[in-house]
Model the fold of this input.
Amino acid sequence: MKVLFLHFTGEARDAKAARLAKSGAELIVEEPRWPRFYELARKEKPAAIVIDFSRAPSHALETTDYLSKAKDTRELELFAIHVFDDRKDLLKERVPKAQVYSERELAAVIADRLPKWEAQRAAAEEAAREERIQRAEERKVAAAASRARAKEKRLAAKAAAGAAVPREPPAPSPVKAAKPQPKKKPQPKKAKKPAKKKPAPKKKAPPKRKKLAVARRSGARAKPKRNKKK
Done:
């Protein structure tokens, strides 16, 4: 299990970290500077956080108070080491959940609580996994119900539309357009021939001989007509 140890850089920090590491926990060392320590806590998700009060105790107090209230760290166990006597009461007042130990005591406490933390972490991961599965099933059921409701609405709307709107007769089949006939070229008009004049009727000559023949038959001599001189 991981344990976050917040201490300012220095030779004393390395020695303290080595003693705490003997507890068997995986120790992550970082300075108590905002926002680095909080981002590291969110990323690594340690089982507990240890804050050293030997340097800048006021800053250490503010850091402990913030960690006890922040969303991602308020459920973690908080340990304080090297707290001066005049700061213990103030620490208990502002951060009631903070546990004050010496280095030697804290190493033993961490070693004793490691199995408990591991069991809690496993249970929390299993609960989170079951919650994810349950939420996924709930989403599937909700999606299926939503699809069913949408289908019922579509069918109802379709039935209502079919009952309200009368059916129109089928449209007649389109008539094929007749092919346009090729246009005939206009022929040149023939010039009219002048009409032929009818010949004038011929005047009939008087039948001279016939009259003479008639006269002979009758025994009378017809006098020949004399042409008048002009």
